[in-house]
Amino acid sequence: MLRLTPPEVFQLSYGINTNKMANTLSPIKEAVEIGPPTPSRQNEDISIRINGKDQRFK
Question: pTM, whole model, 2 decimals?
Answer without folding.
Answer: 0.48
